[in-house]
Amino acid sequence: MAYKWFETVAVAQRRAEKYLPKSVYGALIAGSEKGLSSKDNLESFDQLGFAPHIAGLSNERQMQTTLMGQSTSMPVIISPTGVQAVHPDGEVAVARAAANRGVLMGLSSFASKSVEDVCAVNNQVLFQMYWSGDRDTMVQRLIRAKAAGAKGIILTLDWSFSNGRDWGSPWIPEKINLKAMVKLAPEVIARPRWLTKFAMTGRFPDLGAPNMAPVGTKPPTFFGAYYEWMQSPLPSWDDIAWLRAQWDGPFMVKGVSRIDDAKRVVDLGATALSVSNHGGNNLDGTPAPIRSLPAVVDAVGSQIEVLLDGGVRRGSDVVKALALGAKGVMIGRAYLWGLSAGGQAGVENVLDVIRGGIDSTLLGLGKSNINELTRDDVVAPEGFFRKLGS
Ligand SMILES: Cc1cc2nc3c(=O)[nH]c(=O)nc-3n(C[C@H](O)[C@H](O)[C@H](O)COP(=O)(O)O)c2cc1C
Fold first, then answer.
1. What is the pLDDT of residues 269-301, one digit of tens each?
2. Alpha-carbon distance 331 to 344, whole Å?
3. Which end of the chain is more exposed for a tag (fewer CB within 10 A), N or C?
4. Cα–Cα distance, 328 to 324 (Å, whole number)
5. Which has more pLDDT, 172 or 372?
6. CA–centroid distance for 121 within its chain
7. How far apart are CA 116 and CA 148, in angstroms?
8. DSSP 3-state of 106
9. What is the number of other CB atoms lying within 10 angstroms of the CB of residue 330?
């Protein structure tokens, strides 16, 4: 079937909702507790406006930059997201799309595809880890990622194991087998195109986490991997410094909200940090990252690459974050909607839509380069920003 281009991420999301079984769609919507943070992530971007120019605009606009020691065609990284039965090619399709569009790919340690398979199609992979398992296990994961060709590590630290949602959590089976398919049948039958796509591969959707097991051994199920993580003693700042010292390349800490934590991340010698609330999936009530970004940039922006993730759906959102001091952003659900709606082509479509949005926003603001953006380009309502910690 011919690929049908979508013009915004919102259109891709509507397509994903029509195409995916209800619980798979629900797993991507995610969010925690009352959904305060996931809602704020989106609404906060809507509250910001622009101060455009009308003449003397630039015919050429430049958005190429470097992030985590890698050259990128635009200041956008694919944020790591865990195993999802969204598309049979999953993370490999995303990695191909990212490589074709010249952007970095964050690969979750809970991904459904191995780091070897993903690095085989993309040479700008950042492998994401949680503090899970003992030190030897974590070192083995780093060694494996390096051998596969990963260029950097993303250590995600914001997770509070909350498991309630006011709108109800989708049922996710331990394994997708015949029994699970029968239980899911009513919603799957209502989505025949999704079912056909998997039927054509002759396999059930994969809910294993191959990067959580030593190479050549049977991967744990997603829940098996999650259990290991839940059982792991929580890390101190010294533990994090130890892990950083085990990797001799670019290292990002993801999930920072507070200024004091950002300073600690600088002290341990990280390359980058991402101001993030895990897409509103962590401690509900954590403000949207775009609100706390400028305070973090003011405190540590000259010493470390400050990125942001959470709520980015448009090129104009990327420009807002850059104008407020981010060096780049990471996107999560935006590309998951594209993957659901159209596989690799859908992710490329999302990246193209975002690139087009960055370009037209730069044009309207009279900028020839993303480096020229300043806080004056953005209009924020009084009381918009948050300063967390000191
Ligand atoms: C379904 C889903 C799964 C995710 N899994 C992971 C993960 O495995 N590792 C991680 O560091 N972040 C994970 N995240 C968080 C994303 O990397 C990112 O922080 C978040 O999606 C950004 O918000 P956005 O979706 O509004 O762009 C996940 C997010 C979603 C929505």
1. 999 999 999 999 999 999 999 999 999 999 999
2. 16
3. N
4. 11
5. 372
6. 19
7. 5
8. strand
9. 28
Task: Say if residues 265 and 304 touch (Cβ distance below 8 Å).
Answer: yes
* CA distance linking residue 141 with residue 149, whole number of Å: 12
The per-residue DSSP string of 210-251 comes to: GGGS-TTSPPPBHHHHHHHHHHSPPPPHHHHHHHHHT--S-E
From 78, 81, 83, 333, mutation site for ligand 1 pocket: most ligand atoms within 8 A of C-beta: 81
Using DSSP, state whether 151 is helix, strand or coil.
coil
Distance 245 CA to ligand 1 centre (A): 25
Rounded to whole angstroms, how far apart are CA atoms 265 and 204?
A: 41
Residues 177 and 183 sit within 8 Å (Cβ to Cβ): no
Distance of CA 308 to the CA centre of its chain: 10
CA distance 168 to 26: 9
Question: Is the full-model pTM beyond 0.90?
Answer: yes
Q: Residue 194: pLDDT above 70?
A: yes
Rounded to the nearest angstrom, the distance between the alpha carbon of 347 and the centre of ligand 1 is 16
d(Cα 19, Cα 191) in Å, to the nearest integer?
A: 6
> Is residue 110 in contact with ligand 1, taking CB distance under 6 Å?
yes
Centre a 10 Å sphere on the Cβ of residue 367 and count the other Cβ atoms it contains: 23
Flag whether pLDDT at 131 surpasses 70.
yes
Nearest CA to ligand 1 atom 21: 332
> Separation of 386 CA from ligand 1 center, angstroms?
22
